[in-house]
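User: I've been going back and forth on whether these two constructs are worth ordering. Before I decide, could you fold them both?

Assistant: Sure. I'll take them in the order you sent them. The first construct and its structure tokens:
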Amino acid sequence: MDTRLLRAFITLAETKNYREASSRLYISQPALTKQIQLLEKQLDIVLFERGRHGAVLSDHGRALLPYAEHTLNHMAELLNQAAALRETPPLSLNVGFGIATFHEASFFVARLKEQLPNVTILLEDMPSHVMREKLVQHQLDIAFTRSDKQNSVEYLASRPLKIETLALAVTKDQQPHSTINDYLAQYPLLMLRAQRGQGLYQQVQHYLQSENLHITPRQEASDIQTLIALVAAKVGISLVPYSAKQIGGENIDFIPIQDNANAQWQVDLVWQTTLPKTWQSLIEKLVEETSKQTITHM
């Protein structure tokens, strides 16, 4: 059975929404619908009850979900062991990164390409929670992602890369204020959608709660680039990773939030331990180089 069908089943069961599930799987909604229909045909069972509120598991679907998860996990273990036994190194590497690591990922991949000139390196921008899912499913080899020590996985290795902090994005001609809270009190807040960036959304919420601020966002966006464009258009202000200044326009200031642990988080570089040992040694070396280069760049 095609594992893509099982992954589609599990993801739709988690999200209960075709739009969100297709976004997580990086496929179109019609493609997701076809995959679910094909799986239902193969199993001769209706897995979902479709309605105005999305997709809800049927009784049969609810009964089969744990078996699908179990099968997919065992398939990942099979691929893991096969990769460990394989003598021939992979021909390509899939690398994931987020906007907060745009500079670090670019530097790292350039240096990695110098050392592995015959390997195709595919670099893709995606949220941390998506990177984590793809790492667990062996769809990513390396990821620049938010640290997640509470959910460690045996076949993944990680090294700390940097500490990121929230920053307030404002236009240069907005009236200066002495504190971040003064800005937040005067201007509408723009935020990233929770479904798109769970980690950043939660980080912003933790910061606002620590400051005892109860703010309803004026508008939400699907990516940080759109948030910055809205700030530039003076729709409002936004809390984004300080590293987003690298894609900010000339008329935008990024004010880092200092002395608040709720506004900071650790970014790790994570990789599959099934990669060749020599490659893993190279990755560890390049993590150190990238960390030093980040400090110099900032």
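The second construct, handled the same way:
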Amino acid sequence: MQDGSELSCVKQETLLRTEMTDAPVARTVLQQCLQARLQVKPAEQLSEAQYVQIDRGMVIYVCFFKGATDDILPKMVSTLLNLRLCESDSGKMVSVLELPGSLLIVPQATLGGKAKGKAMQYHNNIGKEDGLRLYSAFISLCEKEMTAAAASAGTGAEVTVKHGTYGNRQVLKLDTNGPYTHLMEF
């Protein structure tokens, strides 16, 4: 038989496990856009800055937290690409797959920050190697879904998936038809 203190410890352990499993393993911010341009490599002494650009579509900022695994990626991609957040020519809200539109994926470690005093801390973010691997797999799944949707639509519209460079500071220029920004956690 357990005494009160042992039972209390078991309850606290269970609560901690529950809180840990309910904690998000990824955070994304979505923004529809008319055009977006992202610097992926800064200018150097002998070379100009390099950019990627998309036209109408959606920008996805993504951050992975400790505990994130490949298992979450299919759900993330399906959810994000099927959300009706883009305005069609008729004014109806459609998904980026239905538009068809392009996609710009931006790694954004700052989405994992928590304020402590007057500074931000990022202790919950995934390690760089695992983060890069998940980010690369996320991009691949998005490319696969976007290509399949464009092929099945048969509209001949050019659909592109561009992405930023993991681990680097990047400069973004964004044109939108309204601030229509959404936060999603997985």
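Notes on the second construct follow. Confidence is low (pLDDT under 50) at residues 9-19. The helical segments are 4-22, 73-82, 128-153.
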